[in-house]
Amino acid sequence: MKCNTASYISPFFSLGACVHYPMDSEEVPKDEQNYNPSVEDVEVEDLEKMKGDAIGNTMYSERWVLQILIKFTKLFDTDFDDELEGEFCSLWDMTVEKDVVDFLLKHDILAIMSCALRPLCRKDNSRLTEIIVGIVGNLCCNEPVRTELSQRTDLIFSLIGLLEDSDPQVLTQLIRLFHCCAWDLVSESVTSTSPHWLEGPINSGQLTNLFAFILKSSTNEELICAVLEFLNTMSSLEVNDKDFSQCFCTAEMITGMMDGWHQLFNSWTPEDEFPSKILTKAAAHWTTTLSAFAGHEGGRELMC
User: Fold this and answer.
1) Is the pTM value of this prediction over 0.70?
2) Would you list the DSSP string of 250-279?
3) What is the pLDDT of residues 154-178, one digit of tens each?
4) Do 179 and 204 belong to one domain?
5) 47 within some domain
6) Rounded CA gap, 117 and 155, in Å?
7) How far apart are CA 32 and CA 23, in angstroms?
8) Judgement on whether residues 164 and 99 belong to the same structural domain of the protein
9) What's the confidence (pLDDT) of residue 297?
10) Of the candidates 108, 75, 112, 71, which has an alpha carbon nearest to the alpha carbon of residue 90?
11) Residue 41 neighbours by CB under 8 Å, 6+ apart
12) Are residues 236 and 170 in the same domain?
């Protein structure tokens, strides 16, 4: 997921222009007068400096990224203005690069994001919260990040607490983050014998109640599609003979599924094509989820 913003502060390298200030000829040693380095000499020198500051095989600057991380640590006494939003969004965009993710892990990015999510730092600013959760969500596309996240109860507590947020953009990024982590419930590479942290809000019904409410009341297409994608994945998972679709199959959820379909496809008829690839995918997720609900007796009774 990438961040869209009108303000953009480039984290890329740039070749600085050579500025020459006029000097009196008497101030310059005679053997140095009329000397001007060639463009090739300047570019080679700058390129060597750039190479030493690059993150992995990218053209992103280590120094620039570290400066942005420092700004995250100072949010408690900093105004979140357009310039800062642009810089944070640039970092969000960069987190699709594995080399950048590895670099951020070495500099305790999850600890920094955990602090940034504290109310004192984000100050109930929905846009800032969306960016922070979006960054963590992108990072969680990488297994080493998810492994480290599972050990950071402070960050997990903050993320689960955001389920009570009412901002659709924040919830969309949060659900996408949870969706990335859901695959570890069945991953053969995850060897931990303790329950996955995501099982808590699933088994307690917290996610079920939230998703049912979103499907019944939200008009945000992106948020509804994110919920349907998560439900589709969870309805396809079985862990130790546990069918996760049963956790989500409630009367409120089935009502919400109907309302969500109506919201997305109000003017659609079976004779029409779906209006977009995104909605085609959403329709498939909707169908798969209801089919999973109908796969067990309790679900069939609720749907009759």
Assistant:
1) yes
2) -HHHHHHHHHHHHHHSTT--TTSPPSSHHH
3) 999 999 999 999 999 999 999 999 9
4) no
5) no
6) 8
7) 12
8) yes
9) 85
10) 71
11) none
12) no
Q: Where are the alpha helices (DSSP H) in the chain?
A: 39-53, 62-73, 82-94, 98-106, 109-116, 119-122, 126-139, 143-149, 153-161, 168-182, 199-203, 206-217, 221-234, 245-248, 251-264, 277-293, 297-303
Among candidate residues 118, 106, 111, the one with its CA nearest the CA of residue 75: 118
Of 152, 184, 216, which residue sits at a domain end? 184
Render pLDDT for 233-259 as a digit per residue (tens, 0 to 9). Answer: 988 766 555 678 889 999 999 999 999
**Does residue 113 form part of some domain?**
yes
Domains in the chain, number: 2
Task: Convert the pLDDT of each residue in 44-86 to its tens digit.
Answer: 555 455 556 799 998 999 999 999 999 999 999 999 999 999 9
Kindly give, in sequence order, each residue whose CB lies less than 8 Å from that of residue 63, ignoring residues fewer than 6 positions away: 53
Token pair, residue 6, equals 């009108």
pLDDT tens figures, 270-299: 767 777 899 999 999 999 999 999 988 888
Domain stop point among 136, 158, 184: 184
Residues 6+ apart with CB under 8 A from 96: 2, 138, 141
Instruction: Give the CATH number of the domain where residue 58 resides.
Output: 1.25.10.10
What gap in Å lies between CA 146 and CA 257, rounded to an integer?
30
For residue 304, give the amino acid letter. C
Together in a domain, 61 and 161: yes
Domain that holds residue 207: 199-304
CB contact set of 180 (below 8 Å; sequence gap of 6+): 137, 140, 141, 146
